[in-house]
Structure formats: C-alpha cells, structure tokens
Amino acid sequence: MKRFKEFLENYDPYLDDRSQLRPDGTRKGKGWLGTFKNSKGENVSEYSISVPTEELQGMDLPKGTILNRPNTLIPTLVPDLTDEEIESVIKATEGENKELSNEVVRKAFSHAQSQLSKGKSQFR
User: How much of the chain is helix, strand and coil, in % rounded to 5?
Assistant: First the structure.
C-alpha cells in the first residue's frame, strides 16, 4: 500500500500522455514557445515535421543525434514565427489542415540548422 501511495504522490499524467510523444517515440518537452491550447483543448508545445537528413549532414551535431535515417524530425513552433504563423501551426495539430506554409517550414528548418550547428538539440 505504501508503494502505491508513493506512486500516486509522484504520478505525473503528462508523462503517460501518448500525445506527449513524437512520432519516433521520444518524449516532447515544453517547446521553444511554451504550451498552447488548441480548439480541442489539447496542450500543444510542438509540432514536428520530417526533413531529409542529408540536408543536416556535415554539421557539428549533438552527441546521440541519429542521422542514419532518411529523415530527421524538427519542431515547427520556433521563436521566429509570427502570431499568425503560430496559430496556423496550432491549427495543424487539430488535423483540419496539416499543411504548413513554406515560410513556417523555412523558419523551422533554419532554426533547427542553427541549433544543430552549435552542437545543440533542435528540440527544447
């Protein structure tokens, strides 16, 4: 009974929420811009897209970065987005229109390249 009580005291539903996992199974963080609520009431801290890994080759990548796959995940909710672009990414998480503008993708890719070239993760 004591173990169960300790479990309940330390239980964090955020850690059991499958929506807090990226498509590759890694756990999402709080994101570059914090957490937003979409119209479904879901928490959104990032929305990852897949980019060709070859575009990221040759950089000083963080230890443990996997580049043996054809594609690499990068976040789209990044600091350079305008309010309208942030709103469009949040709407994409709702499944209505998953297409992002070229400008959002460009900014996300640029941000990921910048982070990776510094030896840091593209995610926060």
Answer: 35, 15, 50
